[in-house]
Design goal:
eight-stranded antiparallel β-sheet, 3 helices, single chain, Alpha-D-Glucose-1,6-Bisphosphate, Chain A, domain 4, alpha+beta, SRPBCC family protein
Length: 130
Amino acid sequence: MHLEAPVKNVGKSQKEVYDFLSDLSNFKKLMPDSIQTFEVLDEDTFRFALKGMPEIVLRRKEQTPHEKIVLGAASDKLPFTLTANLREIEAEETEVALTFEGEFNAMMAMMIKSPITNFLGTLSTKLDVI
């Protein structure tokens, strides 16, 4: 399953956006209002729960300074990644493209497509807090 949030232009430098997203505690500021739990477990891992959804633990899997950050499920039960690709447009403007990749059976994919799409949209919209 491949899902993409609308590309978001942020009025900050590519380095500022990368630094913000590299500090996983900042993801709390991007979470939907329905957030019930958010906890940073270590510098590479955080856990969160949204109302009506199971708890999710994300771990930093990969990063390319100022260009890309990949977070993935800490559990292999539901393998997926959330990737932020950053592209400088101008000195103080960065394009952020959020993508979700996961391997799910057809039934699971059907159940989670809408909530994940909404979640990506919220993360993208809230990037204005940077």
